[in-house]
Amino acid sequence: MKINPVRGTHDLFGKDIKKFNKIISDVKDIAYQFGFNELVTPIFESTALFKKPLGEQSDVVLKEMYTFKDRNDDEITLRPEYTTPMIRAAISNGLLNNLPVKFFGTGQMFRRERPQKGRYRQFNQINFENFGSNDSFADVEIINLANLLIKKILPNKKIKLHINSLGTRENLINYKKTLSHYFNQNKNFLSSESKDKIQLNPLRILDSKNIEDKEVIDKAPVLIDFLSKENLNEYEEIKKCLNDLDITVYENTSLVRGLDYYCNTVFEFKTNEIGSQDTLIGGGRYDGLIEVLGGKDIPGVGWAGGIERMMLLMDDVQLQNQSIHLAILNQNYKSHAFKIYDFLIKNNLSVFWNYKYNLKKSLSTANEQKAKFIVIIGEDENINNNYTVKNLLNGEQKIKDLSNIMEFIK
Ligand code: HAM
Predict the structure, then answer these.
(1) What's phi and psi for 231, nearest 5 deg?
(2) Prediction pTM value
(3) What distances in angstroms separate CA 148 from CA 60, 236, 238, 338, one per listed residue?
(4) Which protein residue has the closest C-alpha to ligand 1 atom 11?
(5) Which of 4, 142, 185, 287 falls between 20 and 30 A from 369, CA-CA?
């Protein structure tokens, strides 16, 4: 019986797992450098955690969540994103006492979207959140961190930072009303998909990819006109600081993001090299969300990045295999081989026993796996109680015994 992977899921191995691990290691390095601590949350949560905060009318809540009832009839959802679980965990564990607090996490998310290149049903996200500060430098810091990380993972790739300000929650409510009114008046020129969003989610029409909608969208009222002077000043300050940090920003007035919890700054890092799923990182401010989830009324800002999308753009990771391969030329020399095997393991080195008992095959495995050394154990070595060690990088070969092999290998 052959069982295939579930649609929209994938296994990680070979070149991909090397890329994946390099990303995770770069994430951890930069997180600690910027003072973010890791927070790991469960893969499933109560459904209520996601429904209201993400917006009952957002695509994620309407069609994409993996939700089920467990044996006690509790409604459970596989996490579709990491911000709300992180807030839940910070509240549950009393982690919001000394503010600000900065957390990061990586892990699998689940969304039942139509799979295509760069879009999967199980995928991995990197997530950075800063809870408790409405200082505009918190926005700058988190965008700077994203920019440095993306440069580290994808040097020489052209990635553009799009930015917008949504203003406060009140601004946004007024703007939504005006927008619904405008779209209603121009209903006949909109696609049927956009028509359905006029009342409940008019903001989402702005980032519709439907060409039919383009003309109406181009003439729609713009959010920036609804921002207060204070909002605008703050937005200007953020852009200026980013400029001072040599980060080029592209102001995108139709950037609204797909989840309901945002206000003020929103941003995305985009590429045009991987097709339609072109957002590598997306985030923004979510003042008010922590209170909605039962915490104090404190602000927050953060972002999430898609690891698989970054991997699509990433060059192969060249890793020298640190293991030492053993070429045992005949099963009869096993016990002599065992001495070096045990010695190397106890010296914290990594050893690869290939079960081949053949020089040519052993050499070819060692070369394939890019091993640095091979230890040859044949008749002479067995008789003389020593080992032939070859450095596969420079071809240098020496006869050694347990007393002096370490200096050659190190
Ligand atoms: P999001 O825009 O829904 O935001 O997702 C963030 C990133 O996750 C996307 O830009 C993309 O790279 C990746 N991603 C999303 N869906 C998929 C998928 N189906 N397959 C592969 N990659 C995907 C959030 O999740 C927010 N929680 C971000 C945030 C954090 N805002 C504030 N803090």
Answers:
(1) -60, -45
(2) 0.91
(3) 29, 21, 17, 47
(4) 306
(5) 4
